[in-house]
Structures are given as C-alpha cells and as structure tokens.
Amino acid sequence: LKSKIIWYQSRLACRWNDAVVFKYEEKQLDKLHSVLASYLGQFGHAATHRLICFLFQRYWVLTRHFAMNGKVLRRLNQPPRFHNLSGQYRWFRRRYFKSIIFFQVGRYFEFYGRLGKFARNYFHLRLGASRRRLGIRAGFPVNQLAKYLKAALAVWPQVVLIRQTGRYSGNVMERRVDAIFYDHYEP
After folding, report:
1. CA 106, 171, 181, 96 torsion: positive or negative?
2. Are 79 and 93 in contact (CB under 8 A)?
3. Contacts of 56 (CB under 8 A, 6+ apart)
4. Coil, strand or helix at 151
5. CA distance 125 to 79
6. From the CB of residue 158, how many other CB atoms can be counted at a distance below 10 Å?
7. Which residues in 29-62 are b (16+ Cβ under 10 Å) and which e?
8. Are 119 and 112 in contact (CB under 8 A)?
9. How far is residue 122 CA from its own chain's centroid?
10. CA distance to 1, 3, 139, per residue, from 112 (Å)
11. How many Cβ atoms from other residues are within 10 Å of residue 21's Cβ?
12. What is the pLDDT of residue 186?
C-alpha cells in the first residue's frame, strides 16, 4: 500500500516554473480511491486505527484528497449540487478563502466581488457586466492562463484553478478543482 501511495503521490504533484502544483486528475484519483477502499476494507478486519492515522499523517496525497468519516472514505474535491452559479462560486470561496480563485465560466476565467476588483487593478482587466448576486466581474480568456498564473503567484501564495467538467450538476455546470499552485510549499 505504501509503495502505491508513493506512486500516486508522484503523479499528482509537480513543479511549474518556481511553483509547486498539486493536480486533481479524476482518473488517477478514482484509481487511488479504489486502491484505498480495498485496503481499508481489509484493514476493517483488524485493529488498524493507528495505522490508518499514520498513513494520513505521513502522505499528503491522502489528506489533500480524501477524508475518513468513520470507516467511510470520502473524496474532498467533490462539491455538492448547486442551483445557481453564485452558490457554487461562494462554496469554493469559503473552502479556499486564503487563495485567489481562477473560476472557469465557458472560455474565460472569471473573478467576482473583491477578487474582481483586485483582478481588474492588478491584471489590468476590463470589467464585464456584473453577475447577479456576485457583483463585479473581471476575467481573461482560458488560452492566457499561464501568463496570469505567473502574475498571480508573484502576489498570492496560493492559486486555485477551478475548471468546468462539461457535465451538469443540478441547474449549473459542474466545476471542480483542477490544480492548486503554491509559490512555495513545505509539507
């Protein structure tokens, strides 16, 4: 199990420029979830609480992507269903309140409210029409992501990239964390 966790951990982290990137690739996380669920099922036949705690403390890939609710393994990057875009955006803002969020809406990454004001001033973006219940809106095209990521990491210690999955969840397009960028990271 430890060697498998290390293998997945090496696949889900990398460096980009001078930043550390934690990726949230669905296929890799699905496979890791299956492996963990299988082992945890076997661990349920013995007194392994301390072993499970040790694994979650030692390997960041487990604490970053999964949580244990009793004996149930739960994925952390699966947000609930939403009825509107503002509820979805606010959920990500509460969850990553110390970060700047690049929130994909169609072919753009958008910023709202206070982050919209910051993005307009810092990135020199034009304001778009404000969205209902979200306030000021500023954004840039998806194809310019690398340029704005580099600029954001110069100011913010953490950038969270939220991408559309192409599926609908409730009344709104499903979005999930694609990657988290850190200007520096110490486990």
Report:
1. positive
2. no
3. 62, 63, 68
4. helix
5. 29
6. 17
7. beebeeebeebbeebeeeeeeeebeebeeebbbb
8. no
9. 23
10. 42, 42, 9
11. 18
12. 55
Which pLDDT tens digits describe the chain residue by residue (187 residues)?
999 999 998 888 888 888 888 888 888 988 999 999 999 888 888 888 888 889 889 998 888 888 887 778 888 877 888 888 999 999 999 988 889 999 999 999 999 988 888 899 999 998 888 888 888 899 999 999 999 999 999 888 899 999 998 888 778 888 999 999 988 655 5
Whole-prediction pTM? 0.83
Question: Using CA atoms, how far apart are residues 36 and 44, in angstroms rounded to an integer?
Answer: 12
Q: How many CB atoms lie within 10 A of CB 146?
A: 10
- Cα angle: 26, vertex 73, 187; to 5 degrees: 70
Q: Which of 169, 103, 94 is nearest to 138 (CA)?
A: 103
Q: Which single residue is written with the structure tokens 């001078």?
A: 18
